[in-house]
Amino acid sequence: MTRIAFFGHDAADAAVRRRVRGFVEDGIDVTGFMMRRRDPGSLDWENVDLGETRDGAFVQRIRQVFAGARVAASNRDKLAACDVIYARNLDMLACAFLSKRHAKLATPVIYESLDVHRLLTRKDLVGAGMRWLERALLKRSVGLVVSSPGFIRNHFERRYPGDFRAFLVENRLAPNTDYGHRACERKSAPEPPVRPLRLGWVGNLRCQRSLDLLCQLADRFPDTLEIRLHGLPARTEIAEFEPVINARANMTYFGRYRAPEDLAGIYDALDVVWAGDFMEAGYNSVWLLPNRIYEGGYYCTPSIAPAGTETAAWLEGHKCGFILDEPLADTLPALLAELIVDRSPIAQRAAALARLPEETFIQPKGFLADIVRQSLNQGAAA
Predict the structure, then answer these.
(1) Do 272 and 303 meet the contact criterion of CB atoms below 8 Å apart?
(2) What is the pTM of this model?
(3) Residue 62 above 90 pLDDT?
(4) Which element (helix H / strand E) includes 38?
(5) What are the beta bridge partners of residue 36?
(6) Can the peptide bond before residue 260 be classed as cis, meaning omega within 30 degrees of 0?
(7) Which secondary-structure segment (H or E) carries 304?
(8) Of 25, 182, 183, 313, which has the most beta carbons under 10 Å away?
């Protein structure tokens, strides 16, 4: 059995848990070496706690990389027992290589770039220094895992041509899990507008412009539109969250949710999903593919995305969503006004989602194990 040391940025993060679940389903033994940003609760894997970090506290996170590396190295027996290190995000990649150095190990490392941090896109000395670090560590890694082809095309191929071997692992649902009823038959049938249209924003709620757009929609359609928010708001990005929602009777914030346990209930109650992001406009926000297009797609709930993004290209390629040009302050209300009185475009796209193969939304069993195997073979041949 292959054994992985998973260096994760937050043991409580739903995406980290999904990746661990995916490894385990593929027959890989996982030992976590993870930091935390809140209480992770009970964990389904053996974990070495590398300490606490805070959202937006970049200097503190750098200090914790060095402290965490010492903690990981002090657990040398657990680290040495692993065949490969899997490091999620650049800070954890640095922590992994420091841990290897302190423990005097030669364990191969796979780098997963969850997104391209804004510091890596800066044009000043800080940006140059971050890219120098990423390139140095990337060249020493046996594989690069990204969740969107936009990251490869716009960042890695542009910045580090020839320095990596990339694997695409989209943010699909983990295999061998009961995700409940898809409700595709009901959603594929046009529904008369006897109740308000339900628009959802689900996942990492980190974009001030998205919240502003949703508030404007709530004000414009107070009686015919419901807006439902599920997830955790990024307090460093959104200055005021609960008060602006509580001020609108047709907006509801449901808080954190459990995946996969709560997904069916969330998406079954929605008609459409907002899939735009502007936190790092022009860069990461344009290049990423968010979890919600796979989660919503599985439950036949179409997404809405801004034109010119990787998300829009994915929706267009599958003919299963709504794509809007700027200015969104005009085009988004215009679309919602149409859907409020005529649900048939939603039903058409829900039917398109229902026709797509299940592996469009759920990762095939063995997929992650094959990537790990290919990375290790590549490293052995180098």
Answers:
(1) yes
(2) 0.92
(3) no
(4) none
(5) 52
(6) yes
(7) strand 303-306
(8) 182
Q: Does residue 382 carry a pLDDT above 60?
A: no
Rounded CA-CA distance 336/62 in Å is: 44
Nearest Cα to Cα of residue 308 among 348, 349, 350, 276: 276
For residues 53 and 265, give the distance between their C-alpha atoms in angstroms, rounded to a whole number.
Answer: 32
**Do residues 149 and 182 lie in contact, with contact meaning Cβ atoms separated by under 8 Å?**
no
pLDDT tens-place string over residues 181-199: 887 888 888 777 889 999 9
The dihedrals phi and psi of 221, each to the nearest 5 degrees, come to -125, 65
Q: Count of CB atoms within 10 A of residue 144's CB?
A: 20
One-letter identity of residue 244: V
Of 7-21, 68-82, 96-110, 259-273, the one with minimum mean pLDDT is: 7-21
Please report where in the chains the tokens 């907006």 appear, as a residue. Answer: 251
Q: At what angle do helices 328-341 and 208-220 cross, to 10 degrees?
A: 50
State the Cα–Cα distance between residues 294 and 205, nearest whole angstrom: 17
**CB-CB neighbours of 178 under 10 Å:** 7
Tokens 């009686």 belong to 223
DSSP secondary structure letters along 74-87: HTHHHHHT-SEEEE
What tokens were used for 55? 């959202």
203 in Cβ contact with 47 (< 8 Å): no
Q: Which tens digits make up the pLDDT trace of 101-155? A: 999 999 999 999 988 988 999 999 999 999 999 999 999 999 999 999 999 999 9
Helices (H) and strands (E) in the chain, counts: 17, 13
What's the residue count for the chain? 382
First to last CA, the chain: 23
Q: Which structure tokens are listed for 322?
A: 């709504």
